[in-house]
Amino acid sequence: MKIWISLLLLVAPVFSYAQSSEWRVTKPQWTGSDEKKFSEFITRLGDSVERRECETVDGCMKGTGNLYAGTDPSSLRLFADCADLPYFLRSYFAWKNGLPMSVQRGIAPRSANQPSKDVRYSKFGNYVTSRYDILSKRSGGKSRHPNAVSLLNSTIINMSYTASYRMIGLEDRGEMTDFYPVRLSRDVVQAGTVIYDANGHVAVVYKVTDDGRIFYIDSHPDNTLTSGMYTPKFSRSTPEQGAGFKKFRPLALTGATRDSSGAYVGGRIVGARNQSLADFSIEQFYGNRPDPSGDWKKGAFEFNGQPIGYYDYLRMKMASGTLRIDPLLDVQELVQDICVSLKDRVVAIDTATRSGVQNKPHPERLPVNIYGTEGEWENYASPARDARLKVSYMDLLAAAKNFIARHKVGDPIIVYRGANLAADLLSVYDRESRACQFSYRSSSGGTVTLNADDARQRLFAMSFDPYHCVELRWGASSPQELSSCRDDANKQAWYSQERWLRNQWERRYDVRMDYSLEELTGPKPGAGIERAPDVDIVRYLNSQK
To answer: Which of 69, 107, 143, 339 has its CA 20 to 30 A from that of 544?
Structure first.
């Protein structure tokens, strides 16, 4: 009984504090211990998403995957899209642990001479013009602490967008950046590391496996929270745009005083300088054998003295010990990752159809850019999500070709002891694609079940347009499956004319796309392509047997 009472006394004050909306800074700086605890917080949340115990930010933060579940004021809005998610999780953790927090407030493009004036898509990246520090103040002899609910519900979320990540983080201009690029190493790229895709997406690493695979969680405009595996669907870009792996800059509160409760009041927040960070590196941009002229595209990646591609180099650096690749296991993992994306797409399309957006008339024009806009299109369209899915299938085919080529020349990294690699790869693909079954509810309320190979075959027929019926969202072509679709002739015409855009896997944010139906007669500059890329892994593997 005495032990139980002692435990209650120990836990009760922490729980009471956590329920408070006040953000009290009780630790003046982020330490290695705090960073480790933050990683554990992200890992547990990510594992919960991977196990599909929850589907939204709200559901996951209220579930067992959140170490602080049940301690939030009811007024806290648990919502975040992809760019908000790292800021939301970092700020939430800082609040719960009495840590300082500061975020970028003003952002400007590094060059005025660029095609897009939108800082989310600036060609030459951005820099920070001002910052917002979360500080307690003293007024009338009393400490006034910031309201964490208000900060998380609006202030911080409103300041974070993909432009916040579109910078290299070299501290060569303006205020300090929130993030800094990191060394590609297993002991550095850990849970909590942020991944930025310059095509307009952000994710958070939650685990790295022994065979060098990096897994992440990401959120979407509809508040869904998903997981995936890092592959070439996250593209590289010019260093100034800052794509790749980065971490939050460690912060410290200086010049503050403590009040009677032990909370720090006043002062200012400073970030660690790059030269003081042991894991700071621009290797991922320029290679570990940079080009003497500074051309990032010519920068080389070498491992054990041998030139190697970026994605292979990254995996080798992430692996525990010497990397050995089992092609059969790799193809299995790639199909399973695709399967996760397909099941997440089910949730997204279901969210869209439950909103009723598909029953509304189709707008007279597409958004100025289908990948980055606002309103219903931003919430319910899926062009970016679908583009990543297309790249995943393209990468699957490329991986199969790569494994067969490397096996033929006796690459020691490839471990295969069978008699026919192509046949065995095809067997694995067939097994995993059949095992990956998912269903959608038709317009008439019926159930349509598909698998991963069905999705491959209709990949470039699946509509990203939220105003189309669910059957077209899933690329139906048979009269039987399409019989329940209620789209009128105008919507069907839009579906037909959007095929150029569906063929495109590259997400372009720097071109106009606000075409009318009459104008969308074929591929336009930067918008749409004539023919879809090859994703037929079945045909290829059959040709190699």
So the answer is: 339
